Amino acid sequence: MEGLYFWTTAQFAGGSTSVWDTFYSAGLYYRGLLPNRHQDVIALGMYYAFYSDQLATNQFNSGQLPQEYETGIELGYRYYVNQYFY
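Structure (tokenized):
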């Protein structure tokens, strides 16, 4: 189905079980942006994650600067060849 779509997710974990305590992501994708390319998809996504206190403690104890958060942005284009290959 052609058109613009929005997606989002959030994940929460305990600091002793995951590197990230909290992880948020969201994005947009558009199917059929170019004429005669109805199955192609262009997508833009971003994420923001907070590192756990346990990781920061381990990094500090090993002489590293503790990390607080990480963020990223990704832009991609999926060129559709057939249902098995893109």
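Helices lie at 53-61. The mean pLDDT is 90.
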